[in-house]
Amino acid sequence: MSTLAKQLSMIRGTRPVKKINEIMLSPIGIAIIGALTLFGFIFSLELVSYTIFILYAAYVAIFGDDFAPLMPIFMFAYVTPSTTNNPGKSEGGLFYGATGIYIIIIAAFAVTLIILRLALDKNMGFKKLFIKKRTFVISMLVLGASYLLSGIGSEKYLEYVKGNIIFALIQFASVFLLYFILSATIDWESFKFDYFAAFAVILGIVVSLEVVWIYISEGVIQNGAIIRSKIYSGWGCYNNVGAVISISIPFAFHFACHKKNSFLYVLIACLLLVGVVLSCSRGSMVGAAFAFAASFIYTFFKAENKKQYRITSIAIIGAALIAGIILHKQIFALFNDVPAIMESTNGSVSFNDSSRFSLYKKGLEVYLDNPVFGQSFYPAAGTMPEFSDVEAFSSFFPPRWHNTVIQMLAACGTVGMLAYSYHRIDTVIYYFKHRTANNTYVALSILTLLGMSLLDCHFFNLGPVLFYSMALAVMEFGKETPKA
């Protein structure tokens, strides 16, 4: 070990550094990051938040016992951008020009320190990074390869080849990198699942508070009704916002299962459910309802204090239902202008698909025209019905097919669909071979994400897939929560 590495190791062993590291790995540390996220979001001071995040990451890279405290940074940085600085709506916003360059520079600084830590620390060095045995690496690499092969041979592949490859690399990196790096740079023997669960719950709370702020600042409620189009953050619309809250719900039930005063965590789960409803994302409402119901039922049978959980949780849910019945007229009026999931026409009830089915039909036609490698992630202008204008391609992120299966078929063809199926089977087999309470809550979160991705493009959005990547690492290497 080099002299510098020895000196840094000695510093990590001092009482002040140990105390700081302890706080970082506690709900208090996560809440501080969450508060900084809200600060940047509300006041459009993301640069301040990002600078502190980078300093935090730099500290972890130099003085952290391992890289576990980095987990929250990725997701909280993702949900920090304010509505004012939405990169798709404000071309002169935060992510362009000098401020955009500044963000790249400070991010590169943190990455450099992380690489140096890997180079100097034998406990998490490059050798360990590449010899660590992992379950999902092969299927992830196969999936990534199918992304990179997308569109080969299609009519206008060469026209979009550069952007397509860059987008494919970003999609692959979002699935692969955090799983690959964190699996080898976290001391899983000392890692506490509660830390990841607390991070997920606080993330859901922060995004729910962002929704509340959007309601206040954007005047979402007009004439007693919600105007859904106004629910737009700096990092996504109502669908994106609702999805992130939804995947946090199972982790509230994890605490209800293992902690005293389980009713507090059921109450938090109920509030997260309210946050999803306020997002007005219909797909997220379905996903959140599944996450809540499945987690509630599983915890009903697995809670360590079954009597307390059953009595208090049923009382809370019952009270919420009674309040809903009493206030149903006001609630219906509030959501009067939000498209209903089911609609009645001439006495017949039908599913309001928001033109999804016509979109999927077109996607299947695209697949049949390009059955091997698909048409690429950047289809020719006019291919996608709701993105018929060439201006749809002015953004780096291409329009997507709002369904993971259709997306893989249309963009990556049969090769992509087989690769995705291989990866999905890989994760399902692993879960059933390693069923624990912790892994079940992770699986419910992932299943919620995948279910919502059958109605939207969440599996091809950066943030949810970063969470997915970390969740798989926790599922595979995290230890079961001991009984209290």
What this model shows, in words?
By secondary structure, the protein is mainly α. It has two domains: 1-130, no CATH class; 132-484, no CATH class. Helices cover 67% and strands 2% of the residues. It has 20 helices and four strands. It has helices at 3-12, 15-24, 27-43, 46-63, 71-78, 97-120, 126-131, 137-148, 157-185, 193-218, 238-246, 249-258, 262-279, 282-302, 306-326, 328-334, 356-369, 404-433, 437-452, 462-477, and strands at 221-222, 225-226, 342-345, 348-351. The strands form two sheets. A two-stranded antiparallel sheet has the order 1-2. A two-stranded antiparallel ribbon has the order 3-4. A hairpin with a 2-residue loop joins strand 3 (342-345) and strand 4. The two termini are 40 Å apart. The model is unreliable at 387-394 (pLDDT under 50).
Radius of gyration: 23 Å
Give the biggest sheet: 2 strands, antiparallel
* Helical residues, percent: 55-70%
* String of helices and strands: HHHHHHHHHHEEHHHHHHEEHHHH
Q: List the domain count as a whole number.
A: 2
| Poorly predicted runs | 387-394
Strand order of the largest sheet: 1-2
Task: Note the overall shape.
Answer: globular
Strand and helix map with partners:
Layout: H1 3-12, H2 15-24, H3 27-43, H4 46-63, H5 71-78, H6 97-120, H7 126-131, H8 137-148, H9 157-185, H10 193-218, E1 221-222, E2 225-226, H11 238-246, H12 249-258, H13 262-279, H14 282-302, H15 306-326, H16 328-334, E3 342-345, E4 348-351, H17 356-369, H18 404-433, H19 437-452, H20 462-477
Antiparallel strand pairs: 1-2, 3-4
